[in-house]
Design brief:
The structure holds 2 protein chains of 2 kinds. Chain A is mainly alpha-helical. Chain A has 5 helices and 2 strands. Chain A has a domain at 44-106. In chain A, α4 packs antiparallel against α5 (89-106). The longest helix of chain A has 24 residues, at 3-26. Classes of the chains: A mainly alpha, B mainly alpha. Chains A and B meet through α1, α2, α3, α4 and α5 of A and α1, α2, α3, α4 and α5 of B. Chain B: It is found in: Cell membrane.
Amino acid sequence: MSSESLVLILGMAIVTFIPRFFPLLLLSKKEISPSFSRWMSFIPVSIFAALVASDIFFWESSFSLHPFRNIKVIPSILVFVVAYKTKSLLWSMIAGVLAMALLYIFL
Amino acid sequence: MKNVTVMSGMRASMPIMASYIALGIACGIVLYDAGVSVLAIFLMSALVYAGAAQFLTGSMVALGAAVPSVILMVFFLNLRHILMSASISRYVKNKSLGFLGLFGHTLSDESFGINYSRFQTEHWTANEAMVTSLLNYSAWTLSTVLGGIIGSQFTINTLIMNYALIAMFICMMVMQFVSKAHIIAGIVSVVLSVVLTAVLKHNIALVIATVLASFIGYYLENNAVEGGVKANE
């Protein structure tokens, strides 16, 4: 294994462990500030939206909403509906991957 | 640890383990295709243990992203665990440092979800929660390794496999639509990330979009609360 991938894994491990462990250790006595925790509650929705949008609206590095040129558009709409109805990661993933596979084969 | 504890922890983790096996195999395939070896996949799952972050790492490494920018994205992606760790902390008081370390390390979205709801609704002990978390952790680690081995034996279309990540993110985003302010923050983040990605052509655009959108959501919610109070006066 290259030293670069070791550095990558250790770096990821540290930045993941800190937010999972320290609140557990420190907050059994103290409460988290309400305004900080309200701001924090907007981080997940913002980061997931940013990750999704920067991927599905681009095809071969340029912005595209054309449903047949950018084949991620239709599966994404489908996944959105499935996710909203089922709230299940597994079903969303199955629906998305199947839709992508079908479009890839037929287009 | 008593057998009863192990059994009830195991029953709680069954549905999560099933979905972790499917997602883990997909993640292992994506990572192997990005050039991460099976040994490195094992180490990553065992030491990092963060599904969404590992999928993201696969797609960023495949695109040739630099190590610091991958770590920065993983940091922002996993910051959400602060809230989970803080809210579950009251149920694991008086536990040893080692217990808290392992419980924190294995605190995934799903382990938090199942344990937190059990702590609230029934007699659920910290040991049962630990069994559930450890089983989920083992299922994830083993299935990503299996995915890596499958990826090394067969050629699998990664455009399609990588889409599993996007589907996962769409679902995780939808589950965060808990108020109007959260939906607006999501929409703002979509617009900002598209515009900034097109302009900057660098994934720092996502970090900027996330931070700005979260402040806008927070500001809107604060103003809505104040407006509501004024309207009631």
